[in-house]
Amino acid sequence: MRGRRGEALALALLTVSAAGLGVVQPRLARDVAAVRERDEVFALPPAEQLRAMTFGYRHAAADLIWAKMLVEHGLHWQEKRKLKALPSYIDAIIALEPDHPVLYQFVDTLIVFQPGAPTPDDARLARGYLERGTRERPYDAEIWLHYGQYLAYLAPSLLTDNAEIERWRTDGARALMHAVELGADADRSLAASTILTKSGERKATIEHLRRAYALTDDHETRRQIALKLERLNAGTDAADAVARVESEWQTRYPFLSRGTMLLIGPHRTPDACAGPHQEAKSGCPRDWTDATRDAR
To answer: Is the dihedral of CA 171, 175, 176, 181 positive or negative?
Structure first.
């Protein structure tokens, strides 16, 4: 008899417990989900302490944070939530490895392409990080090219002020030109020159196109640049300068690469360069600028 009463009591307790869980659990689940959506937890210390915590393994730690950031970015995309702690992750990577090459190639994409419409503040934040990349890697043509493309093509669609849009496009064109001078494809100059011409910067456009003409070996690119210069009434100075350089290359240094020949500089004869004030003599060029100027 007592055993049956115990079984009945246990069954009653189980029933009450199950009913209680059915009532309480959904409410608790909603509360937990709401807290997770409101609050972003970034568990890393400030930059100085973070560098000390790596015990010298800064590059490895930066790669770990980069991987963690990508995972969090993907999870937030899946949950359709913006990763509010993203700048903290980026700042941590920069604190450990300021010239992290992959970061500056994708930082604008990570910031701008998140759930929800991007804002002008997002565009400015991405530009700030890309500018940091050009300072940390000043001779990296790919970083400058990416920075210029962002300013000239992507970012203007995120801004609302027309004056700011034009400034960003002009800055982007200058960055593209600098990227070409650092080694990027010279055909990037054509689009950049169009932007600068529309901005009224004819002199800067001509100077850059002349440099780009001298830097490229592609005949079609040279033809396109020459047409641009002709439309700007810039004469044939660029073609004449390149002809002067390549003539000396083929005549005196055909066994060297073009880049090595440019590093050696123009030929100088002892007779022409003898005596005081030799740098002022037309037959004694100090560099290729002087040599091509004499050829005009």
So the answer is: positive
